[in-house]
Each structure stands twice: as C-alpha cells, then as structure tokens.
Amino acid sequence: MTYRSFIRVPRPEERFLARWRLPRGPARNAIVRERLAHVSRQLFLPHAWERPLAAGLEPWENPRIPSGYTYFAQFVAHDCVQSALPTAALQIGGGNAAPRNLRSKALELDTVYGAGFDGCRHAERHLDAGQSRSAKLPLGRLQDTRAASAKCPFRDLPRTAGEDGAVLTKVSVADDRNDNNVIVAQITVLFSMLHNAVVDMLAGAMHQPIAPHAQGAILHTAARRLCSRIYRRLVTRDLMSKLLHPAIYARYATDCPQYIDQDTRDQIPIEFPIVFRFGHALVRPRYRFNDIYDRREDLIDVLLTTSRGRPWRLPLDESWAIRWSNFFSIAGSRPNLSRRIGPSFSADLVSDVVFAGIDETNCAGIAYRDLLQGAGTSTWSVAALIDELRKCAPEVVRASRMLDDDAYREAVVRQWLSGAREATGLSTDAIADLSTDPPLLLFVLLEAAHECDGAHLGVLGSLLVAEIVFRAMQGPGEQPEVSGSLEEPVGRVAAASGEIDTMADLISFVADRHADSAQMVPFA
Amino acid sequence: MDKVEVVNYKAFGEKVKAWTKGTAPLPSSIEEFASQLAAANVGAKIPERFKHVKFMQSNEDTLVVRLPCKATLAASEERLARQGGSYPLPSFYEQVFEGKPKIDNMLDFHAERIGDYSIANCG
C-alpha cells in the first residue's frame, strides 16, 4: 500500500523545497543534502530552555512525559509504518515512485503478530498445536551475570544464535525493528506477556472444550483481538493525552471527532512518519533501569545492546531488566523523564556506529536521516499546508501564532537557524530558504518548543498525529469477531481487562498474571 | 560530577590531528571549542561548569604529564567503588573487540587507564 498525502496531493509549487532558490540539475541534490546535513548538526546542540518545567529537574526534562512513553511511541510508530524504501535510497524532491508502506492497517499490533497465527511462524510458537501454549508468543529468559545458576524470568525477546552458534545474533520476532534498542525491546515483551496472560485467562474460562487441533489458532485469534482493543485504548487515552496539545486532544478524543482530512482510505499520509520522528527529541541521554547497580545506563549502550549491535552481551542481563516504575508513573514513582520536545536531540543519537552516514555528505546521526526523509518524499511545504488548513479548519490556524502569522513563523525559524551559524556553517541564502520553507519535522519541533515550552506537541504537530491515529481507530479493526464456545470467555476476559486505560494499568495487569516476572528485578 | 563526553571518537581524533598539524585553528574559547566539535559532528557533551579550555602540546624534549582534575578523580573513585555492573568505557572498544570487557577490579583498571592516558601523549 502506498502512502498518500494529507487532505489532498499538493501541487508541485505547494511541496517542500519548491520555494528554495536552487539550481537545476545534479547540483540541486547536493545543495539540499548539504543544507540538511548542516541543520542536523544544530539539532545536536543543547536547546536554551529558559527555565526547568518543575523544581529539581534538569532544564531539558519534561515532567509531563515519563520516558516509557518515548518507547511506547516508537512501538506505535512501528505498528503504523513500515516503509519499503530505505531513507538512503530516497531521491531529493520525491523522484522515486510513491513510497510504499508495508502496513496494510495501522494500530492492529501487526508489529507484534506479523502475519498472524498461520503466516508468521518465526514469531510464534507452534510446538504443540494441541495445547493452549501453542497460542502464546515466545519470550526469552534474561541472564544474571552475578550467579550462573540464578532463576531468571522470561523478560527478553526470543533470541537465537547465528550460523557460528556462538552468540545470539538473531531475534525471532515479527518486526525486528523492535530490537532497535533495549527499551523498545522490553515494551514489545510487555505486549507479548499481555497476550500470553490473555491466552491463559481464556483457556481457564472455557467451559466447552475446543477441538485440540484448532485450540491454538482459536485462542491466539481471540487473544489478539482482546489485546488489540486494550492497546488501542492505551494509545488514545494514555499516549495521545501525553503527547498532544490539550486543545487538539480534546477535539479528537470524542465519540465523533470532526476530521479535517476527508479521505477515508486506510493509507497513512506521508506526513505522519515524517512528523512522528519528533519522538527522537524525547530520547534521554541516560536511563536508570533498576536498582541493582547504583548507576544509569548511557544511551549509546541502550542503542547498541541488541542482537545486531552487541550479540555477545545477550540475552539481556540484570543491568537491563526494566523496573517499569522507572519508566512510567506507578504508585507515586519518580520515573526517568523524557526530554522536552524541541529542536535538540541527545548527543548519542549522532553516533556514527549506530547511524553511519548514508550518502555523499557522510553525515552521521539520526537527525540527518529524519530531515532527509522529508526531502525525499513529495510532502507538503509548511506554508502551503497552513494555507490549506486556513480553508478547511481556520479555527485551528487561529489557535497558533506560528500558524496564523507567516512573518512571525519565518522569524522564529530564522532566529533559531541564525543562532548557531559557527557550528552549522549555513549560508545567508540557506537560512533564508529554510526560514520560508522549513522541513516539516523541524517546524514541528520548533513549534513545540516555542509555543508549548516543549511540554507537548504544538498545534500543527498534534493535528497531524491526531488525524492519523484517531482515524485509524475507527471501525472494528481487522481482527475477526469470536463466536460459539469462546463468546462467553472472551466477554469475561474483556470485562477483566476493561480497566486498563494507562500503561501503569497494563503493567499491573501483566505483573499479576506472571508469577515469575519479579524474579531478579521487581516488575513494577 | 559530569564529565566531558564524546560520541564519535573518530571525528574527534581527526579534529585533534588537525589542531596538532595546524590545519584547523585552535579554539580560543569554550564556545568556539563546542562549535568546532559540533561542526565536525563529534557529538560532544560539555557540562556547563566548563568556562574555559586550555590546549597543551608536547614537543620532542619536554615530557608533558597531564594530571586529571582532582575533584573529578575523587568523584570517579567514589563512584567506581560504589557502583557495580559494567566499567564505563567508550563504546568503540567493545565494538572493535566484539566482546564485553571482563573487569574484575574496577579501581585497579581505573588506575591503569589513568596511567595510560596521562603518559601516552596520544601520538
């Protein structure tokens, strides 16, 4: 399925880069890449926040968003978007054919379940089709380096050795992006544990036996449907309420939201994956995982401790076992907080080991890739998108001076770009072009910092996320209804899980149903 | 006590070489130092407590023994004695050697590292 455009396809003069004064021919490509590389360097400088958002916090910390939501958002991104074309292959100005999104339907937990019970054997357990465990998702044990004989819980992704058999270079999950870092890996484990708990509850609630040959598939399908419902509630009621501008959240978190984009197809607009990369600004420089050692883990190690990065360290050891109250607010805990949303990323995201250069600029770091994605697709320019919103939702534009006042918006962007010219080397012409026609992601980051103190997304960023996420929630979803002997057990499990509205609720629900989860490190 | 940290050691090493050879101007302030490192994509984390930067260059007949900041040394020793887990090494070592370093005595290893970078003169 290809991506579409938000509201309608922008005309050539309405697209990002149309207002830049660029030569024709190959030089155009080089100039755009060079300018974006320069801007990306500025994104790794600290942002000059005026004051902390609360007493006792670092100036960059955001008490509104505990850091677990950073990685829950990454997990949600993986569930909405799986681009077929790598960023490195994008051509400036969207010269490629319309890029494809391999996700046919967003927010169905495809990132966990893949093609489902029959279609994704690497992700799911089919050892014994006659028992309920065949309906479960596989997990891997943690290891305890302090004691070889220690009893370790199943709280890692399932990993297997590569061809040499020495280290765990492979991860057996439906979407290997969920092994991009230690934290998103354990968010994935959390949802797998939810699924397995629901399978057990369903099996326990059944009064009429299911034919053994069908038991695994039926339980699996019913559990997936229940877990998808829980997950969707978590996205709308918890995650979105943290990330979005309160006025925009209120507009969409209703029974019948008024969508601006009237296109009802399941295709995701290309603007969504560009804007959702704002999540990279939330990533902290270091994290406290648990209380075994009196230390915080550096982000670079969080990024590298994966089957691809450091297979010799796997399975995850006691250093990495997440105590979830360090990542979400649970019973008055003081979790690691995310960074405020603004034009500034943690320095480790510039690592040339994790994010090596991908083109002739040889510019390392995730920020360059983020900016390049916007330039490599035929996306709206910020100014043209705002003009379009003036026609169909003028009240939204009026809610933000950066949207409503073109000269003001350009001045804010210009002021930021001019503030680090020694580091970026941006020319006067480049700053002029970037100010009138900034990358959408850069605008969304500046909007959040300038108008919302970095506490949440601004109006435009929130709108673009809300339109896609809340619309994807509409309808029954793709998971089949259950009937027959499972109807009553499903109803009972749905009632038991109906109170799960927040990640804290989910963690409590999962912990209560996995007796061994607290071995080595408390679960919550 | 926060220390200066570097993400891309190769980029930083290239910058140091350029300063040594005179092909890049030596920064005259901590702000210029930060700007040059940002321009080179070094990914330097420079705590706000640093207000100045000083460069010392060895020559053939003078041995320069660089001593660490006394307060930083004390803080590191206290932290290493208290915390467990992995010894905090720059990440590139583990990637190059493809294995987690096994360090039995953190304070001994700390002393060895200080000895190394104080005398090696990075040439």
Strand order of the largest sheet of chain B: 1-2
Gross morphology of chain B is globular
C-alpha geometry of chain A: globular
Radius of gyration of chain B: 16 Å
Count of helix runs of chain A: 19
Largest sheet of chain A: 2 strands, antiparallel
User: How does the helix and strand content of chain B classify structurally?
Assistant: mainly alpha
Count of distinct strands of chain A: 6
Task: Give the tally of β-strands of chain B.
Answer: 2
The N- to C-terminal Cα distance of chain B equals: 28 Å
Detail the poorly predicted runs of chain A. Answer: 126-130
- How large is the radius of gyration of chain A? 23 Å
Report on the architecture of this protein:
The complex is a heterodimer of chains A (524) and B (123). Chain A is mostly helical and 524 residues long. Chain A has 19 helices and six strands. In chain A, the strands form three sheets. A two-stranded antiparallel ribbon of chain A has the order 1-6. A two-stranded antiparallel ribbon of chain A has the order 2-3. The longest helix of chain A is centred in the middle third of the chain and has 32 residues, at 212-243. Chain A is globular. The model of chain A is unreliable at 126-130 (pLDDT under 50). Chain B is mainly α. In chain B, strands 1-2 form a two-stranded antiparallel sheet. The longest helix of chain B is centred in the C-terminal third of the chain and has 14 residues, at 106-119. The radius of gyration of chain B is 16 Å and the shape is globular. The interface between A and B is medium-sized, with 32 and 28 residues.
Keywords, separated by commas or semicolons:
heterodimer, A: 524 residues, mainly alpha, 19 helices, globular, B: 123 residues, two-stranded antiparallel sheet, 5 helices, 2 strands
Q: Brief overview, please?
A:
The complex is a heterodimer of chains A (524) and B (123). By secondary structure, chain A is mainly α. Chain A has 19 helices and six strands.
